């Protein structure tokens, strides 16, 4: 089940609220995860099952949605949050990632 | 500490073969689901293969089916990816990742090993 992210990039400032959207081609229930990747680093799990925060992830990150439309929100962007974010559908094989959203400094 | 460390990448000619390894510590490979995920240079993430806990059942992305084989060595607590008939579009950083059942997300990642397929 392919997933599509938007926007592909966003320019924001520290303190901004940032929203990233992920759309699945068919109903995937709540089976969606979000990852953060910084240059030269492995992806890091942020959120699983749409809205469950992975241990150690700051509470400014949140996820919502169900079915085909999902959202990752960073409530107040911090300097360490400039990175690329990927969604991943976890409903069925083959597991699939979105194309990524790069959060850049304005 | 829970971690995985990949190795075995390198430069290989088209049509060649390579075997990647992933050494785990802090948890047991055979009682967990384990995947390989790859990332072509400057591109996004692509799930490649999974091996199931216990039974050792496997699944593959269509792009590698019939060419790649995932396996594990229980005593060595190590995951493998045997790659045959390599093509230039297999060039990527290959990550080993622990995969949580039944939610199918990846909670532990290595730093990756780079595979370059070029003549």
SSE map:
The complex is a heterodimer of chains A (about 110) and B (about 120).
Chain A: E1 3-6, E2 9-12, E3 18-24, E4 32-37, E5 44-48, E6 52-53, E7 61-66, E8 69-74, E9 84-89, E10 96-97, E11 101-105
Parallel strand pairs in A: 2-11
Antiparallel strand pairs in A: 1-3, 3-8, 4-5, 4-9, 5-6, 7-8, 9-10, 9-11
Chain B: E1 3-7, E2 10-12, E3 18-25, E4 33-39, E5 45-51, E6 58-60, E7 68-73, E8 78-83, E9 92-100, E10 105-109, E11 113-117
Overview in brief:
The complex is a heterodimer of chains A (106) and B (119). Chain A has 106 residues and is an all-beta fold.
Order of helices and strands of chain A: EEEEEEEEEEE
| Unreliable sequence segments of chain B | none
The pair of chains with the biggest contact is: A-B, 24 and 20 residues
Major sheet description of chain B: 7 strands, mixed
Beta-strand segment tally of chain A: 11
Radius of gyration of chain A: 13 Å
Shape of chain A: globular
Task: Give the DSSP E fraction of chain B (strand runs of 2 or more residues).
Answer: over 45%
Counted by DSSP, the helix tally of chain B is 0
Instruction: Tell me the structural class of chain A.
Output: mainly beta
> What is the succession of H and E elements of chain B?
EEEEEEEEEEE
Give average pLDDT of chain B, whole number.
96
Shape of chain B: globular
Number of E strands of chain B: 11
Global Rg of chain B: 13 Å
The helical percent of chain A reads under 10%
Unreliable spans of chain A: none
How would you name the oligomeric state of the polypeptide chains in this document?
Answer: heterodimer
């Amino acid at each position: 089940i392919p997933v599509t992210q938007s926007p592909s990039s966003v320019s924001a400032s520290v303190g901004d609220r940032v929203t990233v959207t992920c759309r699945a081609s068919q109903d995937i229930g709540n089976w969606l995860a979000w990852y953060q990747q910084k240059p030269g680093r492995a992806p890091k799990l942020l959120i699983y099952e749409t809205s469950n925060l992975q241990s150690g992830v700051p509470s400014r990150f949140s996820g919502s949605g169900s079915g085909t439309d999902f959202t990752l929100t960073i409530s107040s962007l911090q300097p360490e949050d400039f990175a690329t974010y990927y969604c991943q559908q976890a409903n069925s094989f083959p597991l699939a990632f979105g194309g990524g959203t790069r959060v850049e400094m304005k | 500490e829970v971690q995985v460390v990949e190795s075995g990448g390198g430069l290989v000619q088209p049509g060649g073969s390579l075997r990647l390894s992933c050494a785990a510590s802090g948890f047991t490979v055979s009682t967990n689901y384990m995947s390989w995920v790859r990332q072509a240079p400057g591109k996004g993430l692509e799930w490649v293969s999974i091996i199931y806990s216990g039974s050792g059942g496997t699944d593959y992305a269509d792009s590698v089916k019939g060419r790649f084989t995932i396996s594990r060595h229980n005593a060595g607590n190590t995951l493998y990816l045997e790659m045959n008939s390599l093509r230039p579009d297999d060039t990527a950083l290959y990550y080993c990742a622990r995969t949580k059942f039944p939610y199918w997300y990846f909670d532990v990642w290595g730093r990756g090993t780079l595979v370059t397929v070029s003549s």
